[in-house]
Amino acid sequence: MRRLTQINHLDAQPSDIEFSVVGKSHKHESADKQVSGKALFVDDYPTPSNCLHAAVIVSNIAKGKIESTDFTQVESSSGVIKLITVDDIPGLNDIGPIFKGDPLLSDGTIKYHQQPIALVLARSHRQAWQAASKAKLTYQSETPNLSFEQAQQQPHLLPKNQFGASVDLDSLIESAVVVKGELEVGGQEHFYLEGQISLAQTTEDGGIFIRCSSQHPTEVQTLVAEVLDISFNKVTVDMRRMGGGFGGKESQAAQWACLASLGAHLTKGSVKLRLPRKIDMSATGKRHPFFNSYHIGANKHGVIEKAHIEVNGLCGHSADLSGAIVDRAMFHSDNAYSLGDASIVGNRLRTDTVSHTAFRGFGGPQGMITIERAIQDLSIKTGQDAYSLRLKNLYREGRSTTPYGMEVDQCDMLLEVMQNLEKSSDYTNRRAEIKQWNNSNLVLKKGLALSPVKFGIAFTATHLNQAGALVHVYTDGSVQVSHGGTEMGQGLHTKVAQIVAQTFGIPLDLVHVSSTRTDKVPNTSPTAASSGTDLNGMAAHNAAIAIKNRLLEFAKEHYNLDAEPIIVNGRFETKDQPVDWTHLVQQAYLKRISLSSSGFYKTPKIWFDIDKSVGRPFFYFSIGASCSEVTVDTLTGEMQVDRVDILHDVGNSLNPAIDIGQIEGAFIQGMGWVTNEELVWNKDGVLLSNSPMNYKIPSIGDYPKQMNITLMDKANPEHSIYRSKAVGEPPFMHAISLWCAIYDAVASISQHREIPNLQVPATGENILQACLAQFDAIGYTRDEAEVDNETIG
Amino acid sequence: MLEIMINEEVIEIEYAAPSTMLLSYLRDQLGLTGSKEGCASGDCGACTVIMIDLHAHSGLRFSQINACITPLNALHAKHIVTVEHLNKNGALHPVQQLVVDKHGSQCGFCTPGIIMSLYALSKRQGNTDKPEDFLAGNLCRCTGYGPLIDAAKEIAGVQYYDPTLADEAAVTAWLSSCNAQTTHNYLKPTNRKQLAEARRAMPKASFIAGGTDLALEITQQLSDIEQIIDISQVDDLLSITELDHGWRIGAAVPLNQVHTFMREHFPSTDELISRLGSLTIRNRATLGGSLGHASPIGDIAPLLISLNGEIEVDDGETKRRHAPHEYITGYRQTLLEKQQWISGVYIPRLGKNQRHAIYKVSKRFEDDIATVVMAFNFRFDTQSRIESCSIAGGGIAAKSTRLSELEAHMLGKPFTQALVREVKALAALHIHPLSDVRGSANYRVSLVQNLIQRFYFECNNIPTRLSDHA
């Protein structure tokens, strides 16, 4: 560099610079580009010349062996360049992220319907997929195991584990009130709007440069290297943004990245692989379906004294992340309640489907909804309002230890959140009004529920709780940040930019967060477990602090100051006149001060003893409560959401607009999970709900008629980044109050005397069944009611 | 030769294969990658663009359409506006700025489509009672829609300076001066005679009007359809005509126009039609298309059956009318012969002593295929007895059907709860639906029974519908 850029923008409008960068509702860093169609996704980048397009030939059966393959029509199809099978893989064919068992291409054994068998490379996307459909395959087919009952008979994928000493089930009989039941919890399709996609290019060193829509670039890097049998340092993953991830691109973006890389490697060129929506929905894993059981004993006041809960995750054909997902279901089987003597058992069952994977909440929702269902049942058994039962059973002084031995530090906060929401939602009055309303309505019935969420923050695999960042300050004063987290819409880059600007004491527009690249920050963890900001924000903060300390030390000496200067709004005071940031940076550069630093962070305090199943797996808990009101049509099972109130704790909010956006989006996604998003497989293991034509995520008309979201906005007692709390997953589980409200509406048919057999998702069909069962149980047929023998004229 | 104005540029295309969709042309040929492919089936709306054409009375007409399922050849002499055009001068368009200010984008993949639907809303003259309906065809998996509903409410009916249309006069001039389309393998007749000739010239060609169903063969089954006859400009298929006893609706009138007409003359059909696809789909889809495909759960067939409507088919020489339940002969099978096309639909007026209702139950309220559709049309005599009745169902058999056993049982009797009870029991004996991804056979039987009950309740002014209660 020969000259230093003259900068004047800081002097132009100094009064416009915000005093504090963190805590303000700055727009998403890409918002302007997104609304203009200029934000680039992998499919939008210009392709390299002669880029080939890949398609996969997939299995038409769910289980068995390939008997014969005939690819002649594939290879002679228009535009086809190459066909690749398992025999062409130079390195490993197994891309299991933690445990082995995930073949990149079938080695002859078929483990699930639509399993990739071969890769076709053609001149165009359409040609490739047209050709792939022409494969002639014969199979030795076996009957797939799909149901919970079938899966129970098979060896489990992973060993079972248990929290707490086994509770003697017979002793529960002595409890004043016993609640026993089973809950079928359905899975969920991610339905990220941008499907799985990768664009791989070979490099001059025989390596791979890959753009990939992935939450875990490091894992993509290592798996690509292992598949191609090259060293990690030859593979670079660049990830600017995803069009949604929600967990579906944590481990399961890798297969498509590896296939694109394999194609590029074998042709020494470039290959793009983009999954059509139906293939994406059929060939990638989903939220785990669970079959859970609960057996709970309470005293006559409804205080839970003993509990035995069993959660059974249906994992699909391989372990993928199922070990940790079922763990998290177990960790959240208490939700916010002290269960007394509790044993919690987790099983990981093998089924002959796609391998189910991470999805926002990561097993937490499936665990949590089970105990909430049990509380609803308890409410019916005791004749008490479910809200007052919930209050009684919250973790509290003297009853604050979880079944896995971790203390709940913020018991007071749990109670405060519940009581504040009870007031602001006018719960008590509405409860009375609804009772009256239901008595005067023959067909439509309303339901109401107010329930808490307590969600543990940290990866339960302790080693993943680390992050790195790289911060450069350039001589025009601008700052570039790279970190290990990926942007999938959650506003991570916006928050990290705010954190770095706040840390330096400079305006936000000086900070740019670049794409996530494995050559900038290595050995990263997935952007998952809501930890993106906690980990990467702190790592970026640490990097900025390192540079800032050098600058301040220099400034103190250079300007002959008595104390360290305080940089605010991009300037600091000296004895003579204020000095602006860019000037400081330029002076430091001339004096050969390093303006770049990496930063590292590891979450403190956490540990877990796997053998004893005790420890502190979480740094802290995210806390909140929600209150939902619904109306159910007892003739058709249709349902409408009338009002939702959410009070949620994000610690000090780093960006209230983004936090509220996360809460609202998570709730609606959770609403889909508990209502209409139903995965249907037929007996052959074929996913029938395989397109947006037959799998319905919420659309705009499903939005609640009234929605109130409030942030608790109290500092996190733990030393998290600027005392904020994670927000990505926890609010998903506020939708459980919506499910409980449906339960409440259905139970009102029997005046809350009969437990409704409501499952998850509570589809129209399930709701109608539950309503009909209520009518049966009370021996009342509605058509004998009010209107008999009336006629119309 | 095909001429399309895309943003500011008039593009002349010598030949485009009939199966080329607008979206792939925009993205792959023009490098306009703002419009996204989320599903390639018109379900997600990430590809939404604006189609502007010239309407005889109202001038420039803005319709949001799904680029993923609109054949390029269908767009001759139309102006297409994509998201890139809105801020052509660098500054954000007011609609774009609004979405930024509302924090209405997260991952951003659906956002360009959202912007275009909001833009279509902003061009709608006059009041729009439910502005968020313009976004019913845009799925968003991140935001939960709250900020987008706010944005829709704020932009609806507001007058603002639209920098995009600075040169409206030039656009109008171009639209009105385009030559006729001359494309090989894609014929676009404008009258009956030409249509019959086109049919003779290309006997194997597929008919297309809006293409919202046919296009799926191209984008989902990956078929290369070689020849297409586009009937969307045939004058005989495009008008709604009042007759002595009712109306004739042209088979190619887009459903959004049919909706406006039906809302006025058959208000009992309003909810059903507003739930038929999304507004984006209704801008292209037609009555003829729905009936032509004879889906067992098509909402239109039960609607038409219950209104005692008729389907008009034409071969250029003779027009014939069929009752819809006779016209549809089986699963996706009809009486239509190869040289024929559906030209129109006749619907008689409802009498004062007639009560009509049509109910749709689907997993999702908007833009979903019905699990069951039930339609009722009862006429009562002076003694409140059922003088005639029509009970039609979709989703309960291989084709949309009349439940004649039920009808026969009710004729001449007073409409009482006792009768409803008998008919519900009868229904369980006479219908044998399938179980599928949308619901089990048992659920469908229960729905049929309970919708009969609902009709009875509604006739007695007992509230039963979620959409009606506050």
From TrEMBL, chain A:
Obligatory cofactor(s): FAD; Mo-molybdopterin cytosine dinucleotide; [2Fe-2S] cluster; Mo-molybdopterin
Gene Ontology MF: a single term: iron ion binding
InterPro entries: Ald_Oxase/Xan_DH_a/b, Ald_Oxase/Xan_DH_a/b_sf, Ald_Oxase/xanthine_DH-like, AldOxase/xan_DH_MoCoBD1, AldOxase/xan_DH_MoCoBD2, AldOxase/xan_DH_Mopterin-bd_sf, Xanthine_DH_Mopterin-bd_su
Keywords of this entry: 2Fe-2S, Iron, Iron-sulfur, Metal-binding, Molybdenum, Oxidoreductase
Enzyme Commission number(s): 1.17.1.4
Keyword Manganese in annotation: no
Keyword check for RNA-binding: no
Domain Aldehyde oxidase/xanthine dehydrogenase a/b hammerhead: 36-143
Classification via SUPFAM superfamilies: CO dehydrogenase molybdoprotein N-domain-like, Molybdenum cofactor-binding domain
Similarity comment: family membership: Belongs to the xanthine dehydrogenase family.
NCBIfam families: xanthine_xdhB (TIGR02965)
Protein name per Swiss-Prot or TrEMBL: Xanthine dehydrogenase molybdopterin binding subunit
Gene, per the UniProt record: xdhB
From TrEMBL, chain B:
Residue ranges annotated for the FAD-binding PCMH-type domain, each copy included: 179-352
PROSITE patterns: 2FE2S_FER_1, 2FE2S_FER_2, FAD_PCMH
Alphabetic keyword roster: FAD, Flavoprotein, Iron, Metal-binding, Oxidoreductase, Ubiquinone
Pfam families for this protein: CO_deh_flav_C, FAD_binding_5, Fer2, Fer2_2
Enzyme Commission number, as recorded: 1.17.1.4
Entry GO MF terms: 2 iron, 2 sulfur cluster binding; FAD binding; iron ion binding; xanthine dehydrogenase activity
Gene3D superfamilies per record: 3.10.20.30, 3.30.465.10, [2Fe-2S]-binding domain, CO dehydrogenase flavoprotein, C-terminal domain, Uridine Diphospho-n-acetylenolpyruvylglucosamine Reductase, domain 2
Domain 2Fe-2S ferredoxin-type, first and last residues per copy: 1-86
CDD domains xrefs: fer2 (cd00207)
Protein name: Xanthine dehydrogenase small subunit
Species the sequence originates in: Alginatibacterium sediminis
